[in-house]
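User: Show me a protein chain along with its predicted structure.
Assistant: Here is one chain, sequence first, then structure tokens.
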Amino acid sequence: MKHRIVVLGAGYAGAFAAGNLARRLSPADAEITVVNAVPDFVERMRLHQLASGQNLAFRKLADVFAGTGVRLRLARVTGVDPERRTVAVTGEDGDGELAYDTLLYALGSSVAHHGVPGVAEYAFDVTGRSSALRLRERLAVLGGGGTVLVVGEGLTGIETATEFAESRPDLTVALAARGELGAWLSPKARRHLRQAFDRLGITVHEYTGIEAVEPTRAIAADGRSIPADVTVWSAGFAVHPIAAASGLEVAETGQIVVDRTMRSVSHPDVYAAGDCAYAIGENGRPLPMSCASAGYTNMQATAAIIARLTGSEAPTTGLKYHGNHISLGRRDAIFQMVDGDVRSKSWYMGGRTAAWLKSGVLKGAGWSIAHPTFGMPKRKRRLATAPDRAGARVAA
């Protein structure tokens, strides 16, 4: 029987990984199935653009994987049983169960509410297509003079605030930051960021934690009331509790604890990639939830899976950040180089050149998703062993 590889999630990590596995493993030995809740690939890095009113083209996953040999199952994952090596799903065809020999868990993350009252009821976010479209609809009916408050000074918050201010100059846009705006940037990059906020007319509330969200305002930790017809919550990410509920070893964040090859430390048939992996980078610290981490971890996980199935030594790929790329609307951006400890170097790139570079990164990622196998090679690697359904492995 063929070795059954199941990939949960078709975001940046899952889609790339499935294509790479299909490209390098022989279909005579391996069967690859991708499970995803929606039929389209969602470019999460561009969801703030979608929310601002821009029209984005979405790629159908059925078209993405057509001709690759990858099977697509449109369903929502409801549970994982690593002891039985099964995944429970529900979809248009009802409830079902998928058996696997190797599982790649790449379900990503969603917005983290942090238990703040009113966030779930009244706030919007851009961590998923449905939530971005919900925000888009709200902004569309918000007349001139309406107020938008973005909570969170990370990359998502900055990109969302600047996109909205540029696309909708009729709105009053503000950002609430727990600390100093752009504190992690180099001095010159920080000045560039502040100049962009001033140019776009964005009000910044620094050292302002938000402790409650209401329909028309947010309440700061010091008791201040900040007007907001729309509050956009971008104060961090959280993973789905499925992994923790399954019995896999997870960190306090709920992320799956993995070794250097992205293999679960508690269940060797399970790998994790993307935001749901608790992976330690080359600087000794956990990788942040980001698109860059999705790239690093999916490359490492697929390389390890292929090596172990084909009887070779699992290689290690780089887990080191080189910089942060921040869009500031469509015509401005910042590219900040960082060192091995993810501290900003003095050099940075800003302005239209950085915006052009960021646009190239987005287009490159989109092209890669549209061509998941990068052209199918004539020769593929055969598996060195065949799965024994009782749990052992025997020579093929």
